[in-house]
Prior knowledge:
Layout: H1 6-23, H2 28-63, H3 70-84, H4 95-118, H5 123-126, H6 129-164, H7 168-172, H8 199-202
Amino acid sequence: xxxxxxxxxxxxxxxxxxxxxxxxxINAIPTKEENAKRAWADVQSAYQRRADLVPNLVATVQGAxxxxxxxxxxxIEARARATGVxxxxxxxxxxxxxxxxxxxxxxxxQALSRLLLVVExxxxxxxxxNFLVLQSQLEGTENRINVARGDYNAAVQDYNTTLRTFxxxxxxxxxxxxxxxxxxxxxxxxxxxxxxxxxxxxNPAGAAPPGGSAPATTPGSAPPAQ
Length: 226
């Protein structure tokens, strides 16, 4: 009786068990990991689009010769920090790196919010077509960022759950033993507080606002004497 070679027996066993292993979710972990990485690429693309808009936005506001410069400087500095922090797909499981990335982009979000509040005091910017286009593009990009972050968080939750639930937890501790949970986006501390702008610094009491508009009046009071 001819005995089969041990290697052939092992190969036959692997082939026979492959469908069963696949059915038990051995491929679920790498598949969901790749889905999360793809979602992360979408997040980075959205953030990059915003970063690309900032220089033109700043230049347009500077061209309007507004009096307030601090907020513009904050936007420029925040953009530099945000673009200087990167998180590769391979480091999405690093809490420190991810928090640094999130904090930097959160600071840019806050700085841009303050800038858009500031320009409300300048009618000449509100009628500037270039500024209006940039503002619209920025608003659209912020929406893209929110959607991309939501999609990423959903993909990360799915992946992280797979690492902890049966039967895929078996593969997470054996075949895919190097797989680590990924970091989701969370609300930053700065995001809990709305940005504030001191318009009194822009328009001293009794002075006309930028752009030549009439001085503001308290609701219900008589307009100032001309």
